[in-house]
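Protein folding task:
====================
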Amino acid sequence: MNGQGEVALVLRGARLQLRVIGALIIREMHTRFGRHYMGYIWLYFEPLLLGVCIGLIHAWRDRPTAFGPFEFHAVGYILFFVFRGILNRATMAIKMNQALLYHRSVTLPDVFFARHMIEFLSCTGVMLAMLFGLFAVNGSLPESPLKMAFAMIMMALFSQGLAFLAAALTAAIEGSERLVHAVTYLLLPASGLFFLVEWLPEWLAQIALWIPMVHIFELLRDGQFGSRFRAEYDLAYVIGWIMITHLIGLAALRITRARVGLE
């Protein structure tokens, strides 16, 4: 086969997988929300409601700062919701879609890609709505929307790698989904949602920077507030975590598919 034939074969395979993922997105939306429009509204309303509530609680409780407690925490929680939504929904993904895997064109990663795209796009829409609302109320604009967008993408990819691992774990060990849900809540205070690295003592800041999510939140804040603080993040470190979790996670999914007898 010549080079052009190989390229055409790869493109045909890519188009097939994109159609499969598109079909899985439609199926997932119908499974989660039925055919009623209120369900689709909830897809956006849930992260928006939680983000606003978190922001209002801190705006009422915290003393004013250069950032504004509401703006700081409401926008940050939407980023955390990307992590929470992707990881928590991974635990039942294989069980709920196992029958689809008898079709050779449907792979386990396709199932996760479809789910994660829904979570990412809904949170991105909510983030845009939140930023527009903040601009309408107090005229605040992010200093670098590109950095904020990159932080959203990196959080989605990092969460996806962990979701692969979580799904393989829950398929192998019954009841372990409870552990995954607990971990998402335990990571909430350590994720970087409620603090900046420069606020921490030196020894605690060094510990916090071992957590990949802290770097992603620092990138988000850099895009949101920029020159108003000194951001500390290492994108190479986060990318390394993304690559490692994806490699191990995809290998674990391959073993899991063989275990359920679908190959």
Observations:
- Residues 3-259 form one domain.
- The first helix runs from residue 3 to 33.
- The CA atoms of residues 168 and 253 lie 6 Å apart.
